[in-house]
Design a protein that fits this description.
This protein is α+β, with helices and mostly antiparallel strands. Helix content is 30%, strand content 31%. It has nine helices and 13 strands. A hairpin with a 2-residue loop joins strand 2 and strand 3.
């Protein structure tokens, strides 16, 4: 039984190459290693690791937007659990984010992690459901949804800010227009989808339910047999439509925050880009 807390420090470049097995041992996919690397490289973020006897046994990461920041990728290998390591890793990232000028820190918690985050001052807000279901046959795109273009970016940023209450320009600029879609039912963008390089689904945001559901249909026209989409339970239109299409719940998380509450609109979120940064 491990009783002494391992050393927690900023991850070095060689550490990042060793994170895949840590995430796999902790019960997450090794792809999370690429997600946290992106957060550090492109989102002004940080990655901290826990080291014991030369082995990496835990990790946590942070991403910085303007005024808000996210904690994600918190993982501890089984042999080093129940000694407060997850909380210590999270605290290290919170300190980094607040030192970076972040006023509100956000994260998604599992039921297991929620008590840890509540002890650190996080307040539960809105549950999210990750639903998995069948894709649709791919064919010529019809209706109001078309491929995103570079010229759409400013409109997409405005839609994103109105829905999330966050300035996520760093994220959208880094990935747009690769995999981007826009919905233009009346000739102007009223919704967008931004695919994730690391998972199926991705960010889907719309100004009204009809536009959001049209985008979800476009997202389902994807390769493979299934697609996973994470939505706030407060968006009943999205949840009902996905369940009617044969989607079922894979897991559930809850969005939590520390600091001033962010004014956002969960009914406008038809899919999260990542459960790391919403």
């Amino acid at each position: 039984m491990v009783t002494r807390l391992p050393t927690i420090r900023s991850g070095r470049p060689d550490d990042l190459a060793r994170l895949g097995p840590v995430f796999e041992q902790a019960g997450f996919g090794g792809r999370l290693a690429k997600v946290v690397e992106f957060a550090r490289a492109r989102l002004d973020g940080e990655v901290v690791v826990a080291e014991a006897h030369g082995e990496l046994v835990g990790v946590a990461a942070g991403a910085v937007f303007r005024g808000t920041g996210w904690v994600g990728g918190v993982a501890v290998v089984p042999a080093h659990r129940r000694i407060g390591l997850g909380g210590a890793l999270t605290q290290a990232i919170v300190e980094f984010l607040e030192a970076s000028g972040v006023a509100t820190v956000l994260l998604h918690a599992t039921a297991l992690g929620r008590p840890v985050y509540e002890r650190l001052g996080f307040v539960p807000e809105t549950p999210y459901r990750t639903l998995s279901g069948p894709t649709m046959p791919r064919g010529p795109r019809e209706g109001p949804v078309r491929a995103g273009q570079a010229a759409d970016l400013e409109a997409v940023l405005a839609l994103d800010l109105a829905a999330t209450g966050e300035d996520r320009r760093r994220l959208l600029t880094a990935l747009w227009p690769t995999g981007g879609l826009v919905a233009v039912p009346d000739g102007r963008p009223l919704g967008y989808h931004l695919a994730s390089p690391w998972r199926t689904g991705g960010a889907t945001i719309a100004a009204d339910p009809g536009t959001g559901l049209a985008l979800l249909d476009a997202v389902r026209a994807a390769a493979g047999e299934e697609v996973a989409i994470s939505v706030p339970t407060a968006n009943a239109a999205a949840v009902d439509a996905l369940e009617a299409a044969g989607f079922s719940e894979v897991y559930r998380t809850i969005r939590m925050y520390r600091g001033p509450r962010v004014p956002w609109d969960p009914a406008a979120l038809f899919g999260a880009h990542s459960l790391f940064w919403g």
